[in-house]
Every structure is written in structure tokens, then in C-alpha cells.
Amino acid sequence: MGCVCCKCRRRSPSSWSDGGKKIIGKKDKNASSDELFEVIPIPSHNFKLECAVLTRRGYYPDTPNKENQDCFCIKTCIQGNPNVHFFGVFDGHGHAGKQCSNFVKSRLVEILCSIDTLVQDPVHAFNLAFSTTNTELHDNPEIDDSMSGTTAITVLVIGDKLFVANVGDSRAVITLKTGDHGLVVAHDLSQDQTPFRNDECERVKECGARVLSVDQVEGVKDPSVQSWGDEENAGSDPPRLWMRNAMYPGTAFTRSVGDSIAEKIGVVAVPEVSEVQLTANNPFFVLASDGVFEFLSSQAVVDMVDRYMDPRSACAAVAAESYKLWLEHENRTDDITIIVVHVNGLSNSDDKKGVEEGGSSSGGIQPTEVKPDVTPPRSEMFGSVGSNFSQYLHFHQVLLTNDQNQPVKQPR
């Protein structure tokens, strides 16, 4: 839900099911695993991550040549450490959205890799990397980010901990296995940063933004009514951000990388960072663009992924269901990107030595969220696979490989 020309709705089924048993995907019978997904050992805690990714261009009948503005980044063995790995989904928007998302997916992880204290203080590293990437995007003479940018949902795995950094309205979700029946419950690892959130709405208003739906801006509805319901059931006309005396930029999110004009009214690139301890009761986690969550709740996505033993098949099923629901409610679809990461063999039973030397991290912690100052400024493996999604049941799977980039000098 990005640009003002897209009057998107959110209508989320409470759960998704197709009747009972886990489904074994085609990979298990016909495909070799190293051709289609990556298995990532975590030697510090003697478990493995098995991940798959899928990204698809949306269906845009009015602009059939529009490129997929989503992209992703998966980089293993950050700084040569076999216990540190990065996952990210980037959802571009605006005229230069593809350029912005590709720039950020490349530059963000390069900067993270260059920060010596990444493992010791990942929260600081994330804030520094996002700030520097945003500044470099503004200064890039080849990309006009005045009305373009990208959201970013990223997960840094350090041993048996996840550090989740979010800017925008893409989402990360983890599962909690409960009881003896193997039921799974979705827990959001990020909060969508939109005007539906009271804290974000008040913050951007203090920065000078008008927060109104398109109907309110056009005089169809009373602009003094500052209530739009909740994000899951708000219909097709969400609240957006506008300059005080102008009909732009109309962003439906309150944070992004880029968007230099919207930055003047509080749209910042400051991530919300949370820290989560993985346990044996967390069978998988998911990162996805808002093209997935527009009509599917987090629980619906988790229910769907849980039905498949193969993460590639899970990606394909979620993307197909998302696409179908888009066309049931709209005459188009959004770009859709999803990463599914299975957590296999984690026990949390032993105290280990630190991950900084390629060993292990220490014991459990409670999930915590770090809320940085969001006072706005005044003024490896990389993937981006596009295709026509009209034949959405045919999915090309993406080979994930290590990409060991050289560290770069950290900009000040």
C-alpha cells in the first residue's frame, strides 16, 4: 500500500486451511534441494535454517510493462561468521521504486557488513546502516527519490537470536508451537508503520503532516473526522500523509528509505528494532511484502506455511492465495515477495560460548523492542526476479547461494 494512486483495502481471513494434513511439496519427490533453496548451518547452537524465497511482479492491466519493484536480499556468513546471517525484503514505490529498492537491498547489507561492532551491538548497527543508506540514496545523482522510496523488513540471525529491523509496512512473523497437538500461533515480529497506529499518526502530525484519506482530501468525506478504524478492516481508502498546503505525497506508510519530500513531514528511515530468542517451539519465521498481507492476516499466512514440509511449496502457496484474493477485491495485484525460513534442530538445551568467534551465544532472553528517537531530519546473495504473474500457478524457484562481499569503509 504505497502510492496515492492505489486505493487499497485490507480484508484478512482469520485463518487459512485446506483440510488437515501437512502437504509434501514437489521438491521432496522430484527436485534436488541445492538447486532450489539454501540450508544454512548454525554451528554455535547445532541447528540449521532452511530457507526459500519467491518474488513475483504484480498484475497491472493499466500498466502492463511495469517492473517488479519488490526485491530481496539473503546473505549468509556475515563478516565470515557462520552464525550470522541476513534476510531482507524491500518493497519499492513511486516512479523510481525499483531503483530505490535495489539500491537499498545492496547498500544496507554492505554497510552492516562493514560495522565492526555488528555482533556486539546489532541495534546500533541497524540504526547506523539505515541512516547511512538513506543519506546515500538522497545523494545519489542517478536516482530521484523525491517521490520514490522503499520499505524494508530485515532479520539478522546471530546464533539463536533474531534481530528484526523494520521500516514501513512489510512484515516479519514468527510461529509459536503450542500444546501437544502441534498448533501454531502467529506472532508479529514487526509492527506496520502506518497512520493507523496512533503513535505514528501523532508523530507525523507533529512534523507538519496532514493525515487524511483520499476521499477526505477530495472533499467527499469530512476531513475533521480523524478516525479510520483499524488496518485490517478499513476498506479501500486508508489514511495518508499530505503536505500542509499540497496534494502530495499521499504515502500510506509513515517510515521508508528515500521519499525525500515526505521526509519533511515525518516519513523517516529510522527502524524499529526488536530482539527475539529462538526456541525449539519456533518452527519457522516469514518475511513478506505488504502484497502478501493486504488480504491475508499473519495467522492465515502462518497456517498456510505450516501445511507444507517444503518452504518452497509454502512460498508458492502463499503467493498464489495472495494473488487470488487481490483479484477477488481489485482489478490488479501488488508485487508479492515472501521468504520462509524453517528452524530445524534447535534445542536451547546447552550453555555455549559466544558467537563472536564462531562459537555460540549465551542463554535465553525475553523478546524486547528498542524504540529509537524518530525525530525527523530537516532539510551475498541478492535477488530481484520479475515475471508476469498472469500465470501465477507456475512458479520459478530461486537458487540461494552465499555471496561473500568485501567490507566497505563505513561512512560517517
From TrEMBL:
<dbReference type="GO" id="GO:0004722">
    <property type="term" value="F:protein serine/threonine phosphatase activity"/>
</dbReference>
<keyword id="KW-0460">Magnesium</keyword>
<feature type="region of interest" description="Disordered">
    <location>
        <begin position="350"/>
        <end position="385"/>
    </location>
</feature>
<keyword id="KW-0464">Manganese</keyword>
<keyword id="KW-0904">Protein phosphatase</keyword>
<dbReference type="InterPro" id="IPR001932">
    <property type="entry name" value="PPM-type_phosphatase-like_dom"/>
</dbReference>
<keyword id="KW-0378">Hydrolase</keyword>
<dbReference type="InterPro" id="IPR000222">
    <property type="entry name" value="PP2C_BS"/>
</dbReference>
<dbReference type="Pfam" id="PF00481">
    <property type="entry name" value="PP2C"/>
</dbReference>
<dbReference type="InterPro" id="IPR015655">
    <property type="entry name" value="PP2C"/>
</dbReference>
<dbReference type="InterPro" id="IPR036457">
    <property type="entry name" value="PPM-type-like_dom_sf"/>
</dbReference>
<dbReference type="GO" id="GO:0046872">
    <property type="term" value="F:metal ion binding"/>
</dbReference>
<feature type="domain" description="PPM-type phosphatase">
    <location>
        <begin position="50"/>
        <end position="343"/>
    </location>
</feature>
<protein>
    <recommendedName>
        <fullName>protein-serine/threonine phosphatase</fullName>
        <ecNumber>3.1.3.16</ecNumber>
    </recommendedName>
</protein>
<keyword id="KW-0479">Metal-binding</keyword>
<comment type="similarity">
    <text>Belongs to the PP2C family.</text>
</comment>
